[in-house]
Amino acid sequence: MTTAHAHPNIALVKYWGKQEKPGNFPATPNLSITLAGLTTVTRVTNATSDTFVLHGNTTNDPKLVRWLETLRGTFDVPPLQIESENDFPTSAGLASSASGFAALIIAINTHCGLGLNQEMCSEWARMGSASAARSIFGGFVALVPPQWQAIPMAKHDHWPLEVVVAVTSNEPKSVNSGEGMERSRLTSPYYNAWVRDAATDFAAASEAIVGRDFPALAAVAELNCLKMHSIMLTSQPTLSYWTPASIACMDRVRSLREAGHDVFFTMDAGPQIKAVCLPTSTDAVASALSKTPGVLNVIQSSLGEGARVVT
Ligand code: 2P0
Asked: What pLDDT score was predicted for residue 261?
């Protein structure tokens, strides 16, 4: 048996849209931070047939089945029992597929002796779920052309940002990300502008991270998030991942910033708000968000390590 741990990551410059070719390549460069406070634990054991057990329940995940088939096209991988648990809501905009595929390839690599280095693990993770490529690494991570293997930009101790996740729903999302981003590519009138501006946002965010310039990172990350949600909202049928509580949390973050706190929000394909802040503002942000109507609970996290085998 081999056990691996991986953490979800939160994109500050988002991936929303794929290239029109096989291999699950993002259409735009994107970058993220890996969160220490949320964890996926995945155990892999030999079995007589493939079985996938999520939170103790046997499930059939077509994406996982296809990915294993592709992996077996290159490597000799025996039938496996894969057991996985997340200590956070699954398929609810908290990047469970990122940590899931990252933990899985890291576990299989060791268990089956595939001999992959981290970059190659990242490439295999990307084929399962593109955001998973980033969770192979800790700290600040970029997923960029031409290889589209994730690249570690800076370790977690380069800039000890903290994240307060305001959980506003534990329900799985109604439209999964892969389907949603394809809908946006095909129907949003603003999709081409989104793709065109991505490299500029990526460069601005990278520069802000290198220079630890919080106001610059806040400006580009918040705007990039709102651009992505504009693409989602203008897809047909619309993709609306916001709830009244998400909007209230965005307003609360803006008020905190006006009051002098170093904080900005970001949101993914789900109603949870992620408030990224400097450690001096974390307690105030967590307290304010936990009192915002509709917030079920808050999770505080520092930046963490990449995916790793633990036994
Ligand atoms: C991101 N998201 O950059 C963006 C922001 C959601 C919103 O990456 O189709 O689950 O499996 O490659 O990786 C979610 O997309 O999609 C995602 P697939 P994935 O974090």
From this structure: 98
Q: Per the structure block, which two tokens stand in for 26?
A: 């993002």
Residue with tokens 């634990």: 41
CA 238 to chain centre: 22
Q: Which of 128, 38, 51, 44 is nearest to 89 (CA)?
A: 38
Cβ–ligand 1 distance for 11 under 6 Å, the answer yes
Structure confidence at residue 274 (pLDDT) = 97
The protein residue with its alpha carbon nearest to ligand 1, atom 4, reads 15
Domains of the chain, each with CATH number or no CATH: 2-157 (3.30.230.10), 162-302 (3.30.70.890)
The ligand 1 atom at the shortest distance from the C-alpha of residue 15 is 3
Average pLDDT over residues 16-43: 96
- Whole-angstrom Cα Rg for the chain: 19
Q: pTM (2 decimals)? A: 0.95
